[in-house]
Amino acid sequence: MPAHSWRPHAGALLAVLAGPALAQPPPTGTSQQQLVVEGNIADPQTRERFGLLTLTNPEGTCSASMLNDYWAITAAHCVFSSAGTCPQFAANQIQLTANWPRADWPGNTKTVDARQVIALGTPQAARCAMGNARGFDAAGRPTDIALLQVGLHDFGRPDIRERRLNERAPISNSAVLAFGRGRNQLASPVGPTPSSGDGQYRSVEFAITGIQATEYSFFGGDGATIAAGDSGGPTLVEDWDNPLSPRRRLEWRLTGVHSWCETECMPGQTCGAPDPWAWVWRVNRCWDSSIFHVRDAILAAIQQIPPDDAFIGTFPRVPASVLAARRALYAQNIDEPLVAPAGAAIDVQLTFERCHELRVARLAGCPVEPAFEQWSYDANTHQLLHVDSGRCLNISGASTAPNALVILFPCVNAANEKWTVSGSSTWTIRSDHSGLCLHAVPGRRGGGGPLQVSLGTPATLTQMPCDGSPAQQFSNVDADWHRRNGPR
Q: Are 294 and 372 in a shared domain?
């Protein structure tokens, strides 16, 4: 069998071995310690900071990372089958899993289906037959990059800065930071023992050693990340966000994704289907697919924003008894209920409705109809829930300042959506995040005169220092009030 082989495989690729001890095969049967592919385990905070994901397709696993709140990047060969002419997987055949420090996720883990797949390199039948699923871009250059879209708030990271794409082509000898997950122990002649892994994300720094038009390579060195599962894992360079600014700061920019490696199979073993990595004992050189030549295509694609429908109408893990206790919240200083249309956009300040004017106009409205006036409070999570939209009351931008906007936002268990309610028939609602209280600001009636017309403005909801005034007292009316008492 050949001494060297290419390993792109659907669950494949970055492997850099540590140290000169691997220069020659150790004698079979010796007591030498099993060879370990090195690298630092990425803690949960690091995984969330860099948006690290596990990609699962019908044939295996890869790695991926978030570019913003709804687009991820991976290797193109991770979204194609290795069978036949390498057909592309449907979006719903690809799952992305985040394992981040999120208390609102069971086991700190969440898995979602991809909603859209954009492969910037389309595999070629000849390369598929060779077991190398790298593809070619529109200009005929080899590339191995794909984009995956998820729901707008599937992973709930709107406060995380978008990953910046490196603006320069890779440079030889540049230091880069790489992430990947999969095998962390290669095969050992002792036993003999096949390769194994724990599936954890690891990081490593290495220097770029070779540059081509669409790829760059590196050799083994002082450490490594892992193999057989790290395809699509990000490689990043560190640079100043604005070199000329006195307030500049260092940031990590994406420069490529893991693509393929040149490996050696252990003598006397077979490295092929169904597990090409089972008896790989040495990795000589690896290649990452550079994002530079497709940078404009990536930026154009990720401007697409998915519809804001991921959280509408549902509150995961909220007891039915909580949602059944629907309330209408009347600000005592203006005697108007707090409303939010079911399709209300996020980050729009909440307002109150003139209940009596609706009655005069013979429109449904009070005290707890229509549904967009209905709220519920979960005392266990301290979330104030808008029942009709499935969103939570939230302080825009997590502001702690008086007069900050109070809005609806998808429930992500953030500190700025936590509230403490005191009182029974009358509620005072204090933010756990800012320490300020919800405050109703009266609106202004419109009018007209011979020279000008002034438009009316609705009463709005904001936060102010707690003072116990009527503007901070809300009469809560249960959902059965109308049947028992008639119109307000």
A: no
CATH code, 65: 2.40.10.10
Instruction: Reply yes or no: is the peptide bond before residue 367 cis, omega within 30 of 0.
Output: yes
- What is the four-CA torsion angle of 104, 107, 113, 117, rounded to 10 degrees? 100
Q: Are residues 10 and 132 in the same domain?
A: yes
- Same domain? For 288 and 332 the reply is no
Domains contained in the chain, number = 2
pLDDT surpasses 60 at 378? yes
For the CA atoms of 350, 356, 359, 365, the dihedral, rounded to the nearest 10 degrees, stands at 30
Q: Which domain holds residue 184?
A: 4-301
- The sheet with strand 60-66 has its strands ordered as 109-113, 95-99, 52-57, 60-66, 71-74, 146-149, 116-119
Residue 267's region, left for phi above 0, alpha for psi from -120 to 50, else beta, is: beta
For the stretch 326-359, pLDDT in tens is 888 888 888 788 877 555 555 667 877 766 555 4
CA–CA separation, 206 vs 177, rounded Å? 7
The CATH number of whichever domain residue 470 belongs to comes to: 2.80.10.50
Q: pLDDT tens digits for 42-86?
A: 999 999 999 999 999 998 899 999 999 899 999 998 998 877 777
- Do 139 and 42 share a structural domain? yes
Beta-carbon-side half-sphere exposure of residue 357 (alpha carbons within 13 Å): 9
Per residue in 442-469, pLDDT tens? 887 666 555 555 566 778 899 999 999 9
Q: In angstroms, rounded to a whole number, what is the distance separating the alpha carbons of residues 474 and 350?
A: 15
* Residue 72 is assigned to a structural domain of this protein: yes
pTM of the model: 0.62
Both 38 and 99 in one domain: the answer is yes
Q: Are residues 326 and 295 in the same domain?
A: no
Closest of 427, 412, 332 to residue 375, by C-alpha: 427
Please report, for residues 17, 196, 274, the alpha-carbon distance to residue 199 in angstroms, rounded to integers and kept in the order given.
17, 9, 19
